[in-house]
Amino acid sequence: MIRVLLVDDQPLIRSGFRALLDLEDDIEVVAEAGDGEAGLALAKEHLPDIALIDIQMPVVDGIEATRRIAADPALAGVRVVILTNYGLDEYVFDALRAGAAGFLVKDIVPDDLLHAVRVAARGDALLAPSITRKLIDRYVTQPLHTGTATGLKELTRREREAVVLVAQGLSNDQIADRMVISPMTAKTHVNRAMAKLHARDRAQLVVLAYESGLVTPRTP
């Protein structure tokens, strides 16, 4: 069962998402909140698998809520998916940087919402290739962090190959096919690379792959 926390200051958004999610046999909305501070308290109380969090909220906004969840060892199993009205804007970049696993636009169609929740629960990042391209444009010119450079040197050849494929938007199953290995081995390569690069999840691994120069953007 995928346990979901809804955090949004618009009651209609919360009720609409809850009605849709609660219809699914494998998804349960365990709590909902109207601001980031209440959402953080409920995250600690319920330990959901997924927290759907709006960016712009009173008291504590979605970016700060994401940052606090990512920094709390007790909430290590909570994957944050950001909700936004505006698509891939600067706020979303900041949220991904803070530790969000991906983002959704609020006018998403129902089937895509359900798919996204399940993808995030599996541990995959909600980053389509088009979004990855925009991440490249945003982060590839940023200075390389020392910790990233050190971790990059520790990657094995197969781990580096797996990171490149993650940065191209491939799932573990697709990486396994490309590398001619089992999905479990692909997952192991990805997880070890994340640990060495100190990436919280696949979204941050994508950012670090481009930031470090391990992957370079193609000319459009």
UniProtKB/TrEMBL annotation:
Pfam families: GerE (PF00196), Response_reg (PF00072). The modification 4-aspartylphosphate is found at residue 54. Residues 148-213 form the HTH luxR-type domain. PROSITE patterns: HTH_LUXR_2, RESPONSE_REGULATORY. InterPro entries: CheY-like_superfamily, NreC/VraR/RcsB-like_REC, Sig_transdc_resp-reg_C-effctor, Sig_transdc_resp-reg_receiver, Tscrpt_reg_LuxR_C, WalR-like. One of its GO terms (molecular function) is DNA binding. GO terms for biological process: phosphorelay signal transduction system; regulation of DNA-templated transcription. Keywords: DNA-binding, Phosphoprotein, Transcription, Transcription regulation. Residues 3-121 form the Response regulatory domain. Signal peptide: none annotated. This is Response regulator transcription factor. The lineage of its organism: Bacteria, Bacillati, Actinomycetota, Actinomycetes, Streptosporangiales.
